[in-house]
Amino acid sequence: MKNYIKSIYVLIFAFGALQSCTEEEITKLPVTALSEDAFWTSEDEVKQAANALYGSLSNVGQIEWDALTEIMFSQSGASVEISTGAINPGASLVNSLWTGQYATIRDANWFLDNVDKVGLSESALAQYKGQVRFFRTWAHYKLMYQFGDIPIVTKLLAINEGQVEPSSREAVLNFVLSELDGTITELSSSNYAPEYGRVTKWAAMALKSRILLYEGTLSADNTMLTESANLASQIMSGGFSLHNNYTELFRPEGEGNSEVILARINADLEGRYHSLGQWLGPISFHASWTTYSPTKALVDRYPDINGDDIATSPLYDSDMPFTNRDPRLNQTIFNWNEEVDYEGSMFVNNGTWLNFRKWIDPAETAEQRSHIDFIVFRLGEVYLNYVEAMNEVNGPSQDLLDLINELRTRGGKGAAADGSDVIVPPIALAGLTKDSFREIIRRERIIELAAEGILYYDYHRWNWLETTMNQPAVGVVPLENRVFTAPRDYKWPIPDFELINNPNLKQNTGY
């Protein structure tokens, strides 16, 4: 299975980007023992170097970021440190973000500084550079989004060159957008036909659309929002289509479907598995841990079957909270009022946490070794980028609402207990305003993209964290008291060790 991408993992070598490698694995990988002149001699070696950057692509661990919002509770200390207000310059998630992204930047710069030595054709060179530039660009954006002013690094630095002046947030954003334009151009070659799992121009366009939506929201910049929508529109016309089953989209049988724009491939190789099912599953499912669990706040975000908020819905019954609801609720979260045989795997309510059904593969064995690919970009998100951006610029329209209703309809496909479709009535345009449609769109992003690890950015740019993250996290019972200090916590502290290493950096306000 997934032989098409196995080479990425067979050929990966010991870059700093490979943070998941064990010491034993690293000692078996030869490249760091080679001199520069001995390595850059063939296209195979260029491919190895480009492949290594795929180790930095978001994987299932990205889900933990949803625990920094109201929708998820985490038992992991890294995210708990943030969600309970104990964020500090030594916090593990703060440090891992800074060091991990700069490791990716270093590895990309090593590639870009050396790849011209091999003498590839202009077309081949562009295709490799485009893939690597994508990772370097995204790493800069992640750093900028969380830390503000950061050093832009575009070459491999010597030991005595590490004290780089930070660039303003605006300058970093301009760099990121310009680099993405170059990446899109480099990956637009007509003879570039990569296998599933590689970065394409569509992935670069999806990233730029996402970034422009985020930044356009933060700055109320309609120019950025319009460009975000234009990129989304191009992707929507690029041959992608919604997968016809929401549950299946996040299970092995949905891998490689036409909705996926970019996925992190978890190849079926020894030692290349993850334990996502064990992290999310109930204790009754092969003794899983429930490391990450949905909250009652997420459950309450799902509307009734007609799209009405449950606070005002005549259909909602608090004693039967999963009845007459948007069918994605049942496909994302187990009904804690029922104990069910989930395709041969028993779900038993543990009395404390709610449990995700999304991403759970009931066919997994007791060893909990999963190879489910992690979706990085998909058409469903692109729909929502387009609709949100266009609503902010022009207000609601039937065309925009049709895309929301298409997602809602897809959520009902095969969603009944017997596998038949659940009919989901469309939301009507009549009476919608920009403000009321905005609330529908935001709700739709939450319930469509839950447990995909990107909702923190939405809650952040909507300025929702200061209210939602000062509320207790509740599952079946109260789980965690949360604290968010605004405006301080909207920007993370620069790690202490980096302030010592680079005196040009200044600590962010409040830390």
Automatic annotation (TrEMBL):
Transmembrane segments: none
Protein's recorded name: Outer membrane starch-binding protein
Localization annotation: Cell outer membrane
Taxonomic lineage: Bacteria, Pseudomonadati, Bacteroidota, Flavobacteriia, Flavobacteriales
InterPro entries: SusD-like_N (IPR033985), SusD_RagB_dom (IPR012944), TPR-like_helical_dom_sf (IPR011990)
Keywords: Cell outer membrane, Membrane, Signal
Family: Belongs to the SusD family.
Position of the signal peptide: none
